């Protein structure tokens, strides 16, 4: 049932990582439950890997079972303004579906990598919008007990916070199966125009030509700091924040590299894999960045990415 010694570097969006002792791609609920029960029998620890776009995988690999939920169903729901989709559906597929049905609410996500499940888990966001703004309900599988149980939560019960949710807080105790998104009917021309604008912004401002995990650190809520810099930019994310990219730039770290990892000259909150970077290279660069920003601004940076 399980693949053995699977190179996670091939799966990682970052092109970094060692091997997984076991790997299983679940395409339906029955196979998923069987995999969970077998892992319990083998007493193997589990890590849920969605699109692998926000996880730094260690060069040593993972001594347990990696489960990749790949539920690919997608359909229109209530009054044709709701989309219900499996957790393995990519953000690109969701955006395409919304375009086909003239539904607004996902324009901000255009150009984002990853899957619906991963975006829900980390409450992904951009341009002042977040997943929590469009989630109607989420269905998950609780695997923390001997008998896995299906749970359905309304948005309010998902405990969405800035780049977090209940699913992230409880780590790998639940596997997101599907979600229903509440969208609105809008003019297709306006939807496409907004999508094109957002994609063009990403191309112009993000280092799309190198592997990365997107934003390395969470932006800094303005209310949490006393930054004595009149030139510091303030953005909504979706609340007022100081962009971490600005702090990293002012700390003189643009273009800094360790091994094959580099702080992107194009967007300093991206650490890019420019030449066969290792997880060790990235971790050292992350720590250096945290130290320098702390030294200059007395601000503690918090990672947005996760570690495996």
How would you characterize the overall build of this protein?
It is a single chain. This protein is of the alpha+beta class and 308 residues long. It folds into 3 domains: 67 residues, Uridine Diphospho-n-acetylenolpyruvylglucosamine Reductase, domain 2; 117 residues, Uridine Diphospho-n-acetylenolpyruvylglucosamine Reductase, domain 3; 99 residues, Uridine Diphospho-n-acetylenolpyruvylglucosamine Reductase, domain 1 (Alpha-Beta Complex). The protein is 25% helix and 27% strand. The strands form 7 sheets. The protein has a 5-stranded antiparallel β-sheet. The longest helix has 19 residues. The chain starts with a strand and ends with a strand.
What distinguishing features does this structure have?
Uridine Diphospho-n-acetylenolpyruvylglucosamine Reductase, domain 1; Uridine Diphospho-n-acetylenolpyruvylglucosamine Reductase, domain 2; 308 residues; Uridine Diphospho-n-acetylenolpyruvylglucosamine Reductase, domain 3; 5-stranded antiparallel beta sheet; 7 helices; 3 domains; alpha+beta; 4-stranded mixed beta sheet
């Amino acid at each position: 049932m399980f693949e053995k010694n699977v190179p996670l570097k091939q799966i990682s969006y970052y092109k970094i990582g060692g091997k997984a002792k076991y790997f299983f791609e679940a395409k339906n609920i029955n196979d998923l439950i069987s995999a969970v029960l077998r892992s319990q029998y083998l007493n193997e620890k589990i890590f849920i890997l969605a699109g692998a776009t926000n996880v730094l995988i260690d060069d040593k690999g993972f001594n347990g079972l990696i489960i990749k939920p790949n539920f690919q169903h997608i359909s229109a729901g209530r009054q044709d303004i709701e989309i219900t989709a499996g957790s393995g559906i990519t953000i690109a597929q969701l955006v395409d579906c919304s375009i086909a049905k003239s539904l607004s609410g996902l324009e901000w996500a255009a150009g984002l990598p990853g899957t619906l499940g991963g975006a829900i888990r980390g409450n992904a966001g951009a341009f002042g919008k977040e997943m929590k703004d469009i989630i109607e309900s989420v269905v998950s599988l609780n695997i923390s007990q001997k008998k896995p149980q299906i749970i359905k939560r309304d948005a309010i019960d998902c405990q969405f916070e800035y780049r977090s949710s209940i699913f992230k807080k409880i780590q790998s105790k639940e596997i997101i199966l599907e979600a229903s998104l509440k969208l609105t009917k809008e003019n297709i021309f306006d939807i496409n125009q907004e999508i094109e604008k957002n994609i063009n912004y990403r191309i112009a401002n993000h280092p799309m030509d190198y592997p990365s995990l997107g934003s390395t650190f969470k932006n800094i809520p303005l209310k949490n700091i006393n930054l004595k810099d009149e030139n510091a930019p303030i953005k909504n994310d979706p609340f007022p924040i100081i962009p971490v990219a600005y702090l990293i730039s002012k700390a003189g770290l643009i273009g800094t590299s360790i091994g094959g990892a580099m702080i992107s000259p194009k967007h300093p909150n991206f650490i890019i894999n420019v030449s066969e970077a290792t997880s060790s290279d990235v971790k050292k660069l992350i720590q250096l960045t945290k130290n320098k920003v702390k030294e200059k601004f007395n601000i503690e940076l918090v990672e947005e990415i996760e570690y495996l």
